[in-house]
Each structure stands twice: as structure tokens, then as C-alpha cells.
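Hi C.,

You asked whether I'd gotten around to modeling the 319-residue construct. I have! Everything is below, sequence then structure, no commentary in between.
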Amino acid sequence: MKAAVVTSFDTAPRYQDFPLSTPGEGELVVDVLASGLHPRVLSQANGSHYTSTDELPLVPGIDGVGRDAEGNLRYFVLPDTALGSMAEQTIVDARRSVVLPAGTDPIVVAAGMNPAMSSWVALRRRIEFRAGQNVLILGATGSAGQLAVQVAKLFGAGQIIAVGRDAKKLAALRALGATDTVLTAGDEREVAARLGKAAAEVDVVIDYLWGEPAATAMVPIITDRADRDRPLTWIQIGSIAGPTAAVPSAALRAARFRIVGSGQGSVATRDILAELGEIASALAEGRFVLDTTPVALADVEEAWGRARNSNTRTVIVPN
């Protein structure tokens, strides 16, 4: 069969032949209809993700939508495997998939499940989030951040503060549910003042950036709190701005503040799987807004370079 194949962590996948292995007990062969090119997939393909085994060659892709032998449309999540979803066919564990309603758009589900899952699972499974609590989203202008705004609204957040560097994109987030925005471009002291004022009553921070932006934002978010005894939970999800952050020690002592991570490993697989059906239903029902760009599997090498700077979620589809 044809697939996107990674033969070197230094180059983009290429469209070429790859063998389909034999399914084991409880596994299904599906014809892949759509596979999202997520940041997690990019790190899988360059060997930088913390789950990487350095095994080559490999077919990238961690999830997707496919059709099984009985004609069912399924959203599936793959384990760490050399046979990912960016292929004409792949092998899925039926227990790690959900059957989608007839008429569901495979591209929308493939594009949206992974980024929506990040904030959804964090708020549902990593902490005890309650309706009415206030949420700040650091890195809100990316596709995952935009969906986090919508997930927070769906879960009944009181205030939703979107933080990012792009003024135009930030402004557009108000239509998706953001009640306030903070632009991080400009003078550092002015940015700190804006953050501190907006985040004075925040209960939860969803962080897709980490690195220096996170460390810099912690100080005003914590020190300008009206009530430092009010618990503040910082959920670390992504590290677009850097894998490490110089967390100021005073931040851990100056308020009721805790940092938790949310991702593969910190959330049990069974807990992630338990949320798939509801997330898929929300996407199938059109409850979330997201931009998608479908690209043919044969054009995956060209799409790889564009995806890093794309404002939309690239989805690999059959030729």
C-alpha cells in the first residue's frame, strides 16, 4: 500500500510503498479517510517527542478517521507504532476507536479531535473543573488554543481570557467565547500589567507555550491576584515556545499555586478513551469552529513544510 514514510528524522515523509502488517486479536484494518497533521505528529516524525523510540522507517499519524470492513465510520487513536494513520490503510484496536454517526465529515473530526482533546481532557480528567471558574489560555491563537476557548465555553467557564501575540486572531476569539484578550506583543512592563489586570481572578491557566513566555507570565498572573489564597492551577499542555521554563521560585510560595501536566502518561489511556465519544459528537454536531486544509496523501512531502507555519489544521486524505 502507499503511505507517508519517514526514513530519516531530518527529512519530511515521502509518498512510497509500506507493508501492511497482519492485524492481531481485537484489531481491525481500516481504510483511512482522514488523518490530522498535528504538532504532535510533526514531533513524532522528527524524533523529538518524548515517546519517540527512534524506530525507522515509520508511518506518522497518531489518529484519524477510517472505514472498517463492515462500513462503519470510526475515529481511532493509535498506540505508539511504526504504522501510523498517514497511509491508505492502517490497523486499529477496536477498543481505542469510536463509531461515528453516518454523515459525519471525516475531515472535521480528524482535524479537531486531537487539538480539542488537549483542553477537554485536561479540564475533565486532570483537574476538577467547575462551571463558573475562570480560565486563561496562554497561546490561544493556535488551533488548539482556539478550540480551548470553545471547550471552556462549553464547560461553562465564567471568564475566558485569551492570550497571544496576534492582535487580529485574538480579536476573532471573542466570537468563539473569549470574554477578554491580552496581547503579549510590545513593551514587557505593559504586557505584564495587562496580564496581571486580566488574570486577577483566574482559577485555571491552560498553557500551550511553556518556555520563556510561561515563566514571564507567571509573575504578574500570581502577584496581581486580589486573593492569593484563591487556588490557581497551571495546566502545562504544549511547549511551542520551548521545552523548559525557568519557573520563579517565588511563584510557588507567593500564592496557592500548582503546576500540573496533561498529556500522554499523566492521563491514563482509559480516561482519554472515555472522553472520545463525547468529543467526536461535539465535532460531528458542528459545535466547534475550526479551519481545515485537506491535502492528498501523495502530496504529503510538500504539505509537511507548509504545515509548520499554517494558520489552519492540515488533514491528509486519500488521493
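If it helps when you're writing up: Residues 106-126 form the longest helix (21 residues).

Thanks,
B.
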